[in-house]
Amino acid sequence: MPPFEPFIRPATSADLASVRAIYGNAVSTSLATWDEICPSLEEIQSRFTALTEAGFPYLVAEDSEAGVIAGFASATPFHRQSGWRYTAEHSIYVADEYRGRGIGRALLKKLIGALKAAGFRTLIAGVSEPGGEASIAFHKAMGFAVHGTLLNTGFKDGQWLSAVYLVHDLGEPADMELRR
Q1: What 3-state class would DSSP assign to 104?
Q2: pTM for the full model?
Q3: By three-state DSSP, how is residue 49 classified?
Q4: What are the CA-CA distances from residue 165 to residues 20, 37, 44, 78, 104 (Å)?
Q5: How many helices (H) and strands (E) does the chain have?
Q6: Would you give per-residue pLDDT tens digits along the chain (180 residues)?
Q7: DSSP-derived secondary structure for 54-96
Q8: Which residues in the chain belong to E strands, given as ranges?
Q9: What's the rounded Cα separation, in Å, for the pair 175 and 180?
Q10: With 0-12 CB in 10 A as exposed, 13-18 as middle and 19+ as buried, what is 160?
């Protein structure tokens, strides 16, 4: 399929059933997430509300011609302690039928811009291994660097999984008061 220019915008509650469907597919068919059961729509809504109210970006990629959500990206706190407030971890999921069309790249670029504008300094990607080789290559191409691997820290589908952590420096926040 040829690349196309998706419409990237902030997610709304109306998008969350599509977000859940995309995420649920990843839960049941991949090692990209270590969730073993897809969260309910109510749980997705609760997470969405908590993140957006705390100032974390939550974006969707819309195929305007087809009228469907092709993917989504969100940022979450990396740790709860206040000293980590300038660091976020992200997730990006693209519907199977839209993979390879530049949607992940478009979502990540927009997410990085939103995080910079919100006063974040560092963005972290946690990638599952095995199974995350393409994601690691993608993140490296987007300016992330591998900073470590936590061996055998997850278990899904009868196997031990490791977490590869990649880091992207967003630069010094223009307004550090945004994250106070």
Answers
A1: helix
A2: 0.93
A3: helix
A4: 25, 23, 24, 12, 18
A5: 4, 7
A6: 555 678 999 999 999 999 999 999 999 999 999 999 999 999 999 999 999 999 999 999 999 888 899 999 999 999 999 999 999 999 999 999 999 999 999 999 999 999 999 999 999 999 999 989 999 999 999 999 999 999 999 999 999 999 999 999 999 987 777 777
A7: TT--EEEEEETTTTEEEEEEEEEES-SSGGGTTEEEEEEEE-G
A8: 7-10, 58-63, 68-77, 87-94, 122-129, 145-156, 159-169
A9: 10
A10: exposed
Helix axes 41-53, 16-29, angle to 10 degrees: 110
At 38, the amino acid letter reads C
Q: Which amino acid is at 45?
A: Q
Counting beta carbons within 10 angstroms of the beta carbon of residue 20, is it exposed (0 to 12), middle (13 to 18) or buried (19 or more)?
Answer: buried
- 162 token code pair: 């490791």
111/128 Cα distance (integer angstroms): 21
Q: Which residues contact 108 (CB under 8 A, 6 or more apart)?
A: 73, 90, 92, 142
- Going by the DSSP 8-state scheme, the letter that residue 122 receives in this structure is E
Token pair of 127 as six digits: 């990638």
